[in-house]
Amino acid sequence: MKKRIPVRKKDRRKSTHNGRAKENLRLSEDRFRKVFHAGPAAISISTLGEGVFLDVNDNFVRLLGYSREELIGHTSLGLGIYDSPGRLAQMVEAVRAEGAIRDDETKVRTKSGEILNARISVELIYLEGEECLLAIIQDVTGEKRAEEARARAEEKYRRMFEEAVEGIFQTSPGGQFITVNPAMARMCGYDGPEDLMSCVTDIERQLYVRPERRGQFRRLLEQRGVIQRFENQIRRKDGSPIWVSENARVVRDPHGTVLYFEGSCEDITERKRAEEALRDSEERYRELFENADDMIFTMDLHGNLTSINRTGEDISGYTRAEALAMNIVQVLPPEHCGAVEKVLEDIAAGKEVPRIFELEFLTKNGNRVAVEIGVRPRYERGKPVEVEGIGRDVSQRKGLEAQLRQAQKMEAVGRLSGGIAHDFNNLMTVVLGYTHILAKKLGPDSPNCAELEAIKSAGERAAALTRQLLAFSRKQVLKPEVLDLDIVMEDLQKMLRPLIGEDIELSLIPEPDLGRLRADKGQIEQIVMNLAVNSRDAMPKGGRLTIRTANVDLDKSYTRLHVGSQPGAYVMLDVTDTGCGMDEATLGQIFEPFFTTKEQGKGTGLGMSTVYGIVKQSGGYIWVDSKLGLGTSCKIFFPRVEQAVMTPKVREVLAGPAGGKETILLVEDEGSVAILARRVLEREGYRVLEAREGQEALRISGRYVGPIHMILTDVVMPVMSGREVAHRLLSERPEVKVLYMSGYTDDEVLQHGILDCDIG
């Protein structure tokens, strides 16, 4: 542009022609020129009427992509610079009316066809008396895009705020809501954000279940700036509490003053309930784990213990810390290690293993405990990772099983002994009977008397052994009576002192108001004598023998552990010594017939067997406890009775047999006994009709026409019992007397129906 461009506004006065005015005009034109060419905006000058470009600056050229030559002399309408021709006409009219327009937003098209967002300011100027337009264009395309992006982001965040599942809030430091989203309102039980903010004006007092938590929340935020997962209980509109988890940050001004808090809030009530249920479940499991009567443990696939409960500590004797530092093989006897290692190998290999097996544990003090173990592998992602186990101490069960086996063995041995003793007793009855007959027949002056006395003595010793066997087998005849055990012990004390010797201290401890028992006094004395002799032999160098009586009540907890005992009230006899004691093997055999620990010839082995049989036949229970080197305690329990002790009657001394001439029907199935009985009766002058069984007795009675004065019959016989024989004969001969005889006990006689008759 070669000529100067004078700028003349519509309301400018005509220039003076003095030198000062000219200089000012030159300076003004220079400044305009500098602004026009050096300014940051795109500037153009065009005619008002046709819009012909008169001048453009470099920024205008760069903005639209045209060269200066392509622009000067051409119109914006012809070049299609404005996206909307009508928009250009509107701007021209506005300038004519107002003289200028400011920051009008429009769109312009570049030479390449790109549409740009532009902010345009237009002012009416005069050039050499002609009206022209001065247009300043700013490219605001980036700004517009930023605004649109900001608007989109604001819309996005607004929608997120409105539609968020979590509650979102802003609160003042003083505890008032600034803004909340609908989810926050719903969480708190309100109809909407406005309802919540209008109703809750003091968050600490109205919303927090524990108001002090609001103070903690505020202090943590101010200290840290950000807080995460702050768990708290808030109160809903209806008053019901819920648990929430808050994430928040503090917003400050440039000076550090807190403006507000903002964050999100999640309802974790269900999670809290689930956690509480889980804690309760874990606590119940923990209580079950810790308080179980069985040992519960876990170990890895190498056998290293990873957990153990209190019962496991009690059984093993190791503390939990000690056990968890051990491998399972360290608490096993050598003979069990291989089997357990094989089980672990099979589990690791995914093989089936026995679910339950028995083994022994070595406790910390070296004892062995019988344990029944149940194991199962625990899997993770289909692979075994651990072994879970339950162990039950079966020592008591094993003991009870041993007691039961012992009781069954004793019962079997007792039956065998009883049968042998009964048959042997019949034989010895014949031997002693004929010995007696021969002795009377030969007289005291016979040279054979010594031999007969030796036979009699041996027979009596054999009979004594038989009585002991019968006592063990509970088949001897007892004479029970109501006794005061303290009185029995007091009477027996005089016999015990010389029996045990002076080097053994004897102590009797009676129980005041001791209950009564029903038993055979002689047999009770036999029990005490046998036990005292055993204690004496166990204390060759002296010691102490204590005999104590007491009233005891056995409950189910005791009887569960002692086979054969029954709950109830008992009178206890306790005989305790400080002797050498016994090991478990010996203790398990003490009641067996002919078992003895004494030297050959020092004992028959029937002492404790006799005690056992007497106690059992008396309805009692015996328990022996002994340890090597610590002595032996024998406790005997007799059922307590309420009857009073009876004064013993003076027995009438019967004269010897007078003999007679009556007829006796003898019924006896044992031939030798029958022959002996017949000979004895016939020697006394009686007429004897002999039958070997019941049917024969009936036939003899039917054929015999004379009177039969007495029936002497065995009770236990094959085919027909003595009771049945007597009943049928009494129907034919009601006047006849009946005398029963038996080698069995009263109990067995009663079992054969001898209930309403005298028993001889």
In words, what does this structure look like?
- With 760 residues, this protein is α+β, with helices and mostly antiparallel strands.
- The protein is 42% helix and 26% strand.
- The chain is built from 25 helices and 26 strands.
- Strand 1 and strand 2 form a beta hairpin.
- Helix 15 packs antiparallel against helix 16, helix 15 runs parallel beside helix 22 and helix 17 (485-500) packs parallel to helix 18.
- The radius of gyration is 61 Å and the shape is rod-shaped.
- Mean pLDDT is 82; it is low at 1-17 and 746-760.
Number of domains: 6
- The secondary-structure class comes to alpha+beta
CATH topology of the largest domain: Heat Shock Protein 90
Shape: rod-shaped
What quaternary form is this?
single chain
Query: Number of DSSP strands?
Result: 26
Q: So, the CATH homologous superfamily of the largest domain?
A: Histidine kinase-like ATPase, C-terminal domain
CATH architectural group of the largest domain:
2-Layer Sandwich
Distance between the termini: 168 Å
Strand content: 25-35%
Radius of gyration: 61 Å
CATH class of the largest domain: Alpha Beta
Number of helices: 25
Q: Low-confidence runs (pLDDT<50, min 5 residues)?
A: 1-17, 746-760
Helical coverage, percent range: 40-55%
Average pLDDT: 82
List the SSEs and their pairings:
Elements: H1 19-38, E1 42-47, E2 53-56, H2 58-64, H3 68-71, H4 76-79, H5 85-98, E3 100-109, E4 115-127, E5 130-139, H6 141-163, E6 167-171, E7 177-180, H7 182-187, H8 193-199, H9 203-207, H10 212-224, E8 226-235, E9 241-252, E10 258-267, H11 269-291, E11 295-299, E12 305-308, H12 310-316, H13 320-323, H14 334-348, E13 356-362, E14 368-380, E15 383-393, H15 395-442, H16 449-472, E16 481-483, H17 485-500, E17 504-509, E18 516-519, H18 521-538, E19 543-554, H19 556-559, E20 568-577, H20 584-587, H21 607-617, E21 621-627, E22 631-641, E23 663-667, H22 671-683, E24 687-691, H23 694-703, E25 710-714, H24 722-732, E26 737-741, H25 746-751
Parallel strand pairs: 17-19, 23-24, 23-25, 25-26
Antiparallel strand pairs: 1-2, 1-5, 3-4, 4-5, 6-7, 6-10, 8-9, 9-10, 11-12, 11-15, 13-14, 14-15, 16-18, 18-22, 19-20, 20-22, 21-22
Helix pairs in contact: 15-16, 15-22, 16-21, 17-18, 18-21, 23-24
